[in-house]
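Q: What would this complex look like in 3D?
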Amino acid sequence: MLVILLRYLKGYLVIQLNGHSLERFLNLCANKNLYLWNVKKNQEGYLCSISRECFYELKPIAQKTKTKLSIVKKQGLPFFLFYHRKRKLFFAGVLFCLISVYIMSLHIWDIKIRGNYSYTKEELLKFIQQEKVCCGMKKSKLDGARLEEEIRKKYDSISWVCCEVKGTQLIVTIKETSDYGKKSKFKAPCDLVSNKDGVVLSIITRNGTPQVKKGATIKKGDVLISGVVTLLDDAGEPLETEYVSADGDIIAQTVISYHETIDLYYYEKQYTKKEKNFFGATIFTKYFSYFKNHGDYSHYDEIQDTYTLKLGESFYLPFKFHKITIKEYNLVRKKYTEKEVKEVANRKLALFLKHLKEKKVEIIKNNVKIEVMENQCVLQGDIVTKEAVGKVQKISRENNTQETKEDTP
Amino acid sequence: MKKQNGTSHELKAQKISSQLKLPQDVTIGATILTVTGNYEITIENFKGILEYTEECIVIKNKKGMIRITGKKLLIHYFTNDSMMISGIMKQIEFL
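A: Here is my prediction, written as structure tokens for the whole assembly.
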């Protein structure tokens, strides 16, 4: 492949050899180190290819062997340029194209976000845009480290961010932590208070004074582990009060009351198979689309497909094409049968329980009952769960000062 | 595939060079033919072409000739020290 490309770049000739001692001609060429290729026998003699420079050295050999040389074809870039030397606009176009591709390669034309599952792409893109990083900005002006820092600052549950520029694409890879929220890295003195009602099943204190015991009933807002540690002297009198950041694991049995109603009547989309296609384009950062006509469709779905032009894997160009499809549908009022509605209800409940399990909540008992009434289906009941409770609450400064004042006399 | 035409003197030379593990194309000027399937052949260490048609190519080497017969034979490239022939090969003869 490379050899073919090199031959094309240097330019070569396809020549016809006529004469009586063509084999001798070939041998002499080889002796003079003239490279010949694609030697083919035809009716008149031999057809072969030779590079542009070597052709001039053939003359003495041809005279010696009485061989007639005739050029059949001239191929390669030098000949191509020579033939088209008068087409100034063409060359100007090629030059312009090369320069514009180079200039476009200096900018960012696509932002991709990877690794997000609780934050939407749109939300992150909006934040990135607020940080003055957008499609069309110069690559040299992009400060990846600063952007990473800002994202980490803004979103607490993003533990790791990596901004990488590949071609003309900015790839922001994030990692989200799952167990954020319960314990923060507070350095200020704080209590651990309950965020739910329930019964304490186990309590492990790492830092602070425990306020509840196993089996105690707790209510939302109750202090579970206090950040105030009082040191007692031998007589059992308070000697010193220390404020720490309370930390520990409290597992409690909680009750979630679940209530949900499902209407037996519902609307279903029935597509009429009527659809219209429209096209639009984004050039640089401007969006163009010709007049979109929704016609007489009263209800319709709009589906937009976007194609970005790119060279190779990661050289995204600032041209996007949009295909907008509008599908008409009619709304049909329907009623669930008892069997259907129970299925829907069971699915909803299963989804709810699945979400709970994702939050590492253990389900002990599920008392939810499904009742089908005349117009609606009601899901009602309690779910007994076992989960970690506790949230951080700062110890207010005023209380502290008062307490310390009270302590001192 | 290596080939020597030979008298006893040559056989001796061949023996010595093979025992000394010297390349025989250098010591006794043997031609090296590398055949790929029946469609491609590379020839090294030869003197020149004696005949070339689409059906037959005769090559001169140090001691004699090599005749390759086949169909649609084409010289892929041709230089002083090596050449490649492609086409449908039928026979390789040492004359």
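A: To summarize the key features: The mean pLDDT of chain B is 86. The interface with chain A takes residues 47-54, 73-80 of chain B (CB under 8 Å).
Q: Very helpful, thank you.
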